[in-house]
Amino acid sequence: xxxxxxxxxxxxxxxxxxxxxxxxxxxxxxxxxxxxxxxxxxxxxxxxxxxxxxxxxxxxxxxxxxxxxxxxxxxxxxxxxxxxxxxxxxxxxxxxxxxxxxxxxxxxxxxxxxxxxxxxxxxxxxxxxxxxxxxxxxxxxxxxxxxxxxxxxxxxxxxxxxxxxxxxxxxxxxxxxxxxxxxxxxxxxxxxxxxxxxxxxxxxxxxxxxxxxxxxxxxxxxxxxxxxxxxxxxxxxxxxxxxxxxxxxxxxxxxxxxxxxxxxxxxxxxxxxxxxxxxxxxxxxxxxxxxxxxxxxxxxxxxxxxxxxxxxxxxxxxxxxxxxxxxxxxxxxxxxxxxxxxxxxxxxxxxxxxxxxxxxxxxxxxxxxxxxxxxxxxxxxxxxxxxxxxxxxxxxxxxxxxxxxxxxxxxxxxxxxxxxxxxxxxxxxxxxxxxxxxxxxxxxxxxxxxxxxxxxxxxxxxxxxxxxxx
Length: 470
Prior knowledge:
Number of helices: 15
CATH class of the domain at 50-167 and 305-467: Alpha Beta
GO molecular function: acetyl-CoA C-acetyltransferase activity; acetyl-CoA C-myristoyltransferase activity
Keywords: Acetylation, Acyltransferase, Endoplasmic reticulum, Fatty acid metabolism, Lipid metabolism, Membrane, Mitochondrion, Mitochondrion inner membrane, Mitochondrion outer membrane, Transferase, Transit peptide
Pathway: Lipid metabolism; fatty acid beta-oxidation
Pfam families: Thiolase_C, Thiolase_N
CATH architecture of the domain at 50-167 and 305-467: 3-Layer(aba) Sandwich
Helix content: 25-40%
GO biological process, one term: fatty acid beta-oxidation
Order of helices and strands: HEEHEHEHEHHHHEEHEHEHEHHHHEE
């Protein structure tokens, strides 16, 4: 498929291609003032309105930095405590807690429960953990939406956490089997017999790999091939990454990243902001060598998201309950979809598939969306998705659609930075996307936001966020 995509997309009309000039940072630093609109609401008869009251996150930090000596539940607990402090919601009002994570700490396999207990929630409050790769906290939120919409609950806390500073490293399988046999041995002779079978290669550890189990291919390798298939150049990728870091820095300096809560790390300093935002220059970025496909690949460390530690949490309620408790919600959580496709050649195309589906469910068009917040795994991934969305050929041949949905205007797209610059704790990013959409809608005077993300396994998510009436 990659070869077919590459050959066909290169022959697409120029209008379907996104030029490197269109992603220049300088022309998109200022968020345009969006005029307040009078579009219809997406409320549906007989369906409960679900609102997001507020959300917080710890600063997202490069793995191996200030959070290095913590555990995942420390970050998750801090996010939960921060949410309680910001919203003043009584702990006993919360009906259920759902958390997303990807690489689980074996000591806290249900990190939602451990973090909830650590944050002071009652041991009578159920909590469970979900995992869906990079859309794990998206799944946590929509699980909460379902619980509320079905009448099971009125108040949900959802969130996510990832801690890449201390990922589990296992003994080899042969060594694990030997150790289990040793544990069962009852006599000294039996133990010595088991130990005598150990060979030097048994001692080699199994390191976790950010790779697809079904294809044995790293995500970066897939991103490189995807960029090649859609003819996304190295220059375009570097320019987009520079745009992300520049916009994130501008948003950080302007105090727009208001979902961040300070975190006093025990024995260390108080962390107040993301530390991966590093605007560079095209000259510096071009010096970096390909990270995955060498020597001719185009994906580098500079145009990829980095390994990140962080946690997030949001308070979700039925609108009726929120108003009864005196809250002014941020936004409605409206229609959402999950998609899944080929995990090899289409691993990172989740947004391209999810966007038209969620728009159709909501009865909207691309032009109705005021704010776009897409997960940035790689510059090449983002730009490939935009090209796929703007291609009639791709829509007809791969999506079974009559026509393209179109590509979002970049002056509405990730205007406060994205995962490339802010960081990407796998299990926590979804909540950040939703809160960014809600805050941007309020600041820019828009009504509808569209959140979308890709995930390992060839999956993806899309959701419509509607600003709560001001």
